[in-house]
Amino acid sequence: MMHHKFFLLFFLLAWVGLAPAQDPDNPKPTEEDLILPMPGGGAMVFRPVFLDVGDGPYATREFKMGDRAMGGYKEHPTAVLLGGSFVKENQGQPDWMYWIGKYEVTERQYNRIVNPEVEGSLEPKTQISWHEVQDFIHRYNLWLLETAPDRMPALDETPGFLRLPTEEEWEFAARGGNEVSMDIFDRKHPYGRNLNRHEWYSGPRSSHDRIKNIGLLRPNPLGIHDMLGNVSEMTSVSYRLEYLQGRPGGFASRGGNFRTPEAHLRSSFRTEHAFYLADGSPAAQAELGFRLVIAAPVFAGRETIQALEESWADYRRENPTPGTAAQSTAPAAERTLYSLDDARKTLERLEAGLQRATVDEDTLNALGLLRASFGDVQAMVLKAERDSAAAWARIASSNATFLRGEVRKIPASLRVIEITKQTGGAAELALYEQRHQNLLNNIQNTRNLYGLAIRELGKVAPERAREGFAAYERHLIELGLAEQIQVNNLVLKQYLEYVETRRLNLEAWETQLQGF
Fold this sequence. Notes:
Layout: H1 2-15, E1 34-37, E2 43-50, E3 61-65, H2 68-71, E4 78-82, E5 86-90, E6 93-101, H3 107-114, H4 130-147, E7 154-155, E8 158-159, E9 161-163, H5 167-174, H6 182-185, E10 232-238, E11 251-254, E12 270-273, E13 288-289, E14 293-295, H7 302-318, H8 325-328, H9 332-355, H10 361-407, H11 410-423, H12 426-457, H13 462-479, H14 482-501, H15 506-513
Parallel strand pairs: 10-13
Antiparallel strand pairs: 1-2, 2-6, 3-4, 5-6, 6-14, 7-8, 9-14, 10-11, 11-12
């Protein structure tokens, strides 16, 4: 009876407009949301993206962008470095992070800044040029700094500002950042088989090829909505065929939209857009919108500048200058040999110049000895790479064998639990359920170790890795372990797949391990 009375009361309150109303600017509120005000009582909501790198002045997060399997040469896997804009506590420790829009900017939010006399819908703002977006951002920044500067995050007491995200910021967040394991981060998207619960894409199972209001579906692991679908999203950078270099063109957008086929939706999806049409008018599309990030100046204040100056020498000594996309994902030894070769050429030019000048013989001899030592360094690098490859090949193969055995225990473990539910007591059931949970934990830990071993093998030259697998195979042959030899050969194939794609595919690899 009380239930019916409560329902009737709620209905009456709603009828007179007193029932709790959902915030149209934040339909799915959570505790970690950062909310910035907008004119007319509106709001824009942001989510934190931590980098898990600490708070060092030059601390950056390295991760791989791209997906060769889906995007071809336009999305060539490339190791990039991502820095944060602010330092905030993360699990009790200071950490660099940035804020990214929880939702795509809506027509309603856009109008509050640019066209306040018109209400606007809760759909993402589209049919807008890149230049109009910049005007909107500029106006909103001015309004915030004038009316609510204390609400804006600050670095070294310098308030931040709004801008479009970079490609690195966008893709790191789209993949799930630190909220997902490395194998999930490497997938085309972080949703498994539940894509239609999180993203709008083309077809009757999802958008029906129509744009949708923000926040209707579930968020990604970072609490961000509609990152891969609904509308494609502008970035702040010019499009280049390689992320790190190349001829700059129009601007880059990221993600698919409500007309993108399900099979094409992925975290690495990128497109070039012209700033202007052929007739000279600013380009705009019905499928293209935007979301914002909150950033800060690099040289925010005195403390920040001093820390950067004091740490520069150590940072440059420990971090080589980035090269091409291929070099960024090349084995460590190969990158070291690139640097040695550059140093050798520089030394040869120096020797040639000194020979034309008046230089004592001892100096020339010292330079000759230095050049000869490069050969010793190269030999030591190759030996270290060979030893590393042999160790990680053995670790990968051993973990794959153990993973294969543990996964095969799952059906029997579940059968014991079902039988105990029918015939045993509560204490006995709790014991078997705990054992089953321990089994699942072992499987997850082994899966993570296997992924780590494959990643580490990716840091050595393929020929060194092949040598490592061959050496371990000879050891297994001596022991007469036929099944482990099969596993070792399969692990080699999976490693070579990783070399090709630069992405872990642990779910499929685990299935392959059970298939023979």
